[in-house]
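Q: Second attempt. The first request was missing the SMILES, so the protein and zinc ion are both included now.
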Amino acid sequence: MVELTFYGGINEIGGNKILLEDGERKLLLDFGFPYKRHKLFYEEYLKPRSGAGLLDPLLMGLLPPLEGLYRDDMAEPGLWEQFHDTPVYRKLDRVDGVLLSHAHLDHSGHIAFLKDSVPVYTTATTAFVTKAMQDSGRADFDQQVCYFSPTTRDYPAGWKQIACLSSNTVNQQRQFCVADIAPDELSPEARQFWSWGFWEKRPRQKELISCALIDHQGCSFNLRCFPVDHSIPGACAWGIETGSGWVVYSGDLRLHGKRAGLTESFIEAAAGLRPRALIMEGTNVSREANVSEQEVYENGLKAVASSKGLVIADFSPRDVDRLLTFWQIALETGRKLAILPKDAYLLKTIRLLEPAIPDIAREDSLVIYQDTTASRSPGVWLRDICQEYDSRIVLAQDVRVAQDRFILCFSFFDLNELPGIRPRAGSVYVYSSSEPHDEEQEIDFRRLHAWLEHFNIRGVGLPVESKDGWQIPESEKGLHASGHACGPDLFEVARRIKPGVLIPVHSEQPGFYVEHLGGVETDVLLPAVGGTIRI
Ligand SMILES: [Zn+2]
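A: Got both inputs this time. The predicted holo structure:
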């Protein structure tokens, strides 16, 4: 009997936390950051207290109370006694690993809390992306996926109680096991990247190792890792052989992106396993159709060609396929694509594993927009990027005097650069991302509209507020291809894989699966939060 317990990703998009137990053997399928529940209580200036370690996320229901699973350095003495009466409290003696589907934080973020001894199984690209994101960002204590700073208790003289847990500045890297490449085949540059930042070598720094080498007290799992297409490189689905047959976990996927062939191969291979269960995402299960990346290219090209001034393109920079789409548009329209240093760092990182990714040093049409920083000591990664690509750096004044020569890859949070650029009449803001999902994002959209009005910039593909909510004007649709398959595609994936049971996750409308596939074709089981399904 195999037990699947769902601690997150139920009736919500993201926050997947699934525990698979096959007798003594236990695996987690993703361990994501639960944005929806987090936003219920917190915002930018009201956050879980890092100094309180595990207490806040456990007590606020952001993290399941599974004693034995989390880092000891984050647990105050007596912490667990407070949770013994909580409904889903359990003591877990061992967990053999977490299978990470991709580097979006709603799948990976809470790996930050896991015990150091729990290895992360994933693709080499995902491992590298988690590191690049963390190196170049400011990961809070609840999002430190690739490495973390262990905390120690401080008892400053004269204080009546423990005032804080203070972070050591020395980072501890997690053990990553990669499924798609033998680590000894990595180039010296790739190895160097993985160990970069760990000035104090072992045991702080941990080499990548191959999945095949992991064997937990003779209880190793037979695993299959299937690369799939999603809006971030390195995404994969998983197959796990259990005593009840194969269990397949889709992660996030689509059939309409540039790498649709990967998802196709996954479907065939997964069907060949004749799986007992398929745990499947359903983000867009209620959507009838997709916009393809090719349409984004065509519509984006029209929008950019119509502009006589600056073009700002707003899309997720981790969506490297979208970045390449806009690079192509830049080439077609005689402009340069200006990306931010952290995007350049990500591109350079992915190129270590995927040589087809363009080399910024060799492409005149790719430049790096160095934003204004007040910091006297920028991160070492930033200094290195600016030195390495010195001839590719542009500043606000360079863009200001030649606005029709650039496509600037900015998002909402980069708009404060505009006073230095002063966009001219005829400038365009191409919005190539998803519509607002919550009130906070709606407020940001109102601000975005105000910025564009202030600088007289025309928005294209931008959601506008109407009595039916926020919608993109009909004539401006088709500028964003979702990372997730639409309903008909998801049903096709499920029909072709033909599992014994289908378990929808990562969806606000899992009922669509019951309606379309339930009964005759397959058993659709809807788990409850914290609930267990036995197969
Ligand atoms: Zn995702």
